[in-house]
Automatic annotation (TrEMBL):
The keyword Cell membrane does not apply. This is Fe2OG dioxygenase domain-containing protein. Its cofactor is L-ascorbate. GO terms for molecular function: metal ion binding; oxidoreductase activity. It comes from Dendrobium nobile.
Length: 366
């Protein structure tokens, strides 16, 4: 387990004895066994203080979901010959980024077949026994599960993920032969997603008059990453978070979600469900674009609500610059101090460790 301040834990689950670094279960005789597969993380067993019956509180009580949905944009118009349609498409992208911070794209250039292959590989690696996934030697220690720092249900994410820096994917020694098909598909998808993210970032930067200064245009293969998310079905409480409300700490994120649903984003102080569209990818603005644009583009809070009946899968590509890149604002007077991406990531890590959640951009206000 990727753990902050945890101990060595041994638990018995489905007749297997698991040994790993984790939070010590308080009294797991009294803990309800909720996760049902050998491959699923032992959320309730290891976080028994959070998952006791009496804690079945509602994280998002009586909440009404907004009716509208993030704009759907046809990127085919960017490649077409009609200049008017191209300009209209660029305008739709920039308008969605400042009004919504979220949009959906169709005709995005990433084939259905590639996305389907990736989904098949993704399901296969999550089916591997938990004990193997959690071992630090497994796939270069990029496995994450639950929220090691959580002290309450509101801070806990009922999910597991593999987070691969893009640069590592092409290094064959990070993947044993067992995972060569995973590596091949991920490499293709990472390239396709990088290209799409680059096109979108360029449009957004040029719209603000970017003419080659102060924009960390060279995204870095070591900091951009592909994150494979799995949200096991959650029978503890239907109101558990699959992923707690957060903004992304990057320039922008491209997301492929499955048909289950559960992603919600904030719009005008209301949660709006981003309904699955099998043809669309979801794009959301991250903190760095909000900072760089001096609050013109919006990095919007989003969350995943766990599902009590079915497992959910998603794939996210995070566009990030190198750690040394300076995220200065493109406009004066600037709302934020200049900071490097490295400083930003460190601060997020410190805040998550100390408070269970990130503070984000407001840490860097002038
Ligand atoms: C506990 C947290 C880590 C995280 C920010 C958060 O407050 C909630 C979500 C986490 C997440 C998930 C996706 C990305 O890996 C990430 C970088 C992000 O933007 O949100 C992480 C955050 C993190 O580790 O910084
Ligand atoms: O799974 C999803 O729909 C959202 C994932 C997400 O927000 C993230 O990985 O940062
Ligand atoms: Fe996110």
């Amino acid at each position: 387990m990727h753990a902050y301040g945890c101990g060595l834990v041994q638990i018995k689950k489905n007749r297997h004895l698991f040994t790993f670094f984790g939070q010590l279960p308080q009294s797991y005789a009294a803990v309800q066994l909720v996760s049902s597969h050998e491959s699923d993380p032992p959320f309730t067993e290891c976080f028994s203080a959070i998952f006791s019956e009496s804690r079945k509180i509602q994280n998002h009580e009586d909440e009404g979901l907004g009716e509208s949905e993030p704009p759907l944009i046809d990127l085919g118009n960017l490649r077409g010959k009609n200049e008017k349609e191209r300009q209209a498409c660029i305008e739709a992208i920039t308008k969605a980024s400042l009004q919504w911070g979220f949009f959906q794209v169709v005709n995005h250039g990433i084939s259905h077949e590639l996305l389907a292959q990736m989904r098949r590989e993704q399901k296969k690696i999550f089916e591997i026994p938990f004990e193997k996934k959690v071992n630090s030697r497994f796939l270069n220690d990029c496995y994450r599960w639950g929220t090691p720092t959580a002290t309450s249900l509101e801070q806990f994410s009922w999910s597991e993920a593999f987070q691969f820096p893009i640069g590592n994917i092409s290094e064959e020694d990070c993947f044993s032969r067992e995972f060569s098909s995973l590596r091949e598909v991920m490499e293709k998808l990472a390239n396709a997603m990088s290209e799409l993210a680059g096109i979108l970032a360029k449009i957004l930067a040029e719209n603000l008059g970017y003419r080659g200064h102060n924009f960390p245009e060279n995204s870095s293969k070591n900091t951009c990453f592909l994150r494979l998310n799995h949200y096991p079905k959650c029978t503890f409480s239907p109101k558990t978070f699959g992923l707690t409300p957060h903004t992304d700490s990057d320039f922008l994120t491209i997301l492929h979600q499955d048909e289950v649903g559960g992603l919600h984003m904030m719009k005008d102080f209301k949660w709006v469900a981003v309904k699955p569209n099998p043809n669309a990818l979801i794009v959301n603005i991250g903190d760095l674009f909000q900072g760089w644009s001096n609050d013109i583009y919006k990095s919007v809070i989003h969350k995943v609500v766990a599902n009590e009946n079915v497992d959910r899968y998603s794939i996210a590509y995070f566009l990030c610059p190198s750690y040394e890149s300076m995220i200065g604002s493109c406009k004066e007077p600037s709302v934020y101090k200049n900071f490097t991406f490295g400083e930003y990531r460190n601060q997020v890590e410190i805040d998550v460790k100390e408070n269970g959640q990130k503070v984000g951009l407001s840490r860097f206000l002038r």
